[in-house]
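FAQ: What does the model actually see?

It sees only this:
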Amino acid sequence: MLPGYASRFLVLTSLSLSLLLTACATTTESFRSSCASESDTAWKELSLSKAKGFGGTVSYAKALGLLTAARPLQVAEKFEACYNNAHSAREYISNSYKGE
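And it is asked to produce this:
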C-alpha cells in the first residue's frame, strides 16, 4: 500500500493527464473542421484569371503551393498546420487580386 501522499500524487497526476488529453482532443477537433473549411474556401477563391500582373501571379503561385501542401497535412491529421497553410494561402490569394 502506498503512503497517503503518494496515492494523492498518483490521483492528481492521472487527473491532470486526463484533462490534458481532453484539451488536446478538443483542439484537434476544432482544427479539423477549421482546416477543412479554410482549405475548401481557399480552393474556391483561387482563380488565376483574377490575379493582377506579375506580383499577383507570384502571390497566386505561393497560395497554390501552400494549398497543395495543406492536403497531405490534412490526411496526416496535422490539422493545425493544415489550417495555417490554408489561412496563409487565402492571404496570398487576396494579395494576388490586388497585384501584390
